[in-house]
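Long-time lurker. I teach an intro course on protein structure, and each term I like to show students one example going from raw sequence to a predicted 3D structure in C-alpha cell notation. This year I'd like something fresh instead of my usual example. Would anyone be willing to generate the C-alpha cells for the chain below so I can use it in lecture? Attribution to the forum is fine with me.
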Amino acid sequence: MTALSMTMLSPTPVYRDESAAGSKLAPRPSTLEGKVLGLLPNWRPSAVHILEALGALVGERFRLKNIVMEQRVLQVPITEGKLIDSVREKLDDLARRVDVVITASGD
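-- Reply from a regular --
Happy to contribute to a lecture. Here you go:
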C-alpha cells in the first residue's frame, strides 16, 4: 500500500512580488467557542463542498454562534488589475459580519 502525503501551505497577506513591511495579520481568537465562522468559496466548482465539510467539522468541535456561507463567485471578477481590488468591498462586508473565515479553492 502506498502512503499518501499532504503538503499544507500558509497563505501570506500580500502578493509575493510586494513587500509586507508594516503589514500585520489580523488578530487570532484564542478559541472558536461562541464565534461566527465565515466560509468563503472562490469560483472553483468544489469549493462550496469543501467548505461545507470543514464548517461541519468545526461546528462539531466548537459551539459556534453561527456559520455564514458566502455565495460562490461564478467567475473571476477581474479583467485587469489585481483580484483583491475587485472584491475588496465584499471582503470588508464579510469581515464585519464574522469573527473568523475559512476560504477554499476546489475543482
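Some talking points for your students: Residues 40-104 form one domain. The beta strands are 36-41, 66-69, 100-104.
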